[in-house]
Amino acid sequence: MRILMLGLLLATGVAGGAASAQTVGGTYAVSGANADGSSYTGTAEIILNGPACSISWQTGGSSSAGTCLLTGTAFGASYQLGDTPGLAVYQLQPDGTLIGQCTTIGAPGVGSETLSPSK
User: Fold this and answer.
1) Which residues contact 1 (CB under 8 A, 6 or more apart)?
2) What CATH number is attached to the domain comprising 35?
């Protein structure tokens, strides 16, 4: 778990800048592709907690939740999918969309995911 959190911190650049989570938050439409190429859709909610945040997903009949952080335009989230920890790293777009990649411990590859702010 320490390695996962260290990866999250390094991926989001927390060592080099102040967090600015004020530019994310709310409900998002989710569209993604798993490492095996299968696709999924759903929703996500980001709840701000000072400079950090919590995130939860409802996708493909499953739910997961975790901790997230925005620094600059890099957004990282650690999460738990059942008993398996995972990591997602996104790039914040000017329109508020988050585009990124995600994986879980032991996964044979990396998936892609887009979080689009709900209107």
Assistant:
1) 85
2) 2.40.128.120
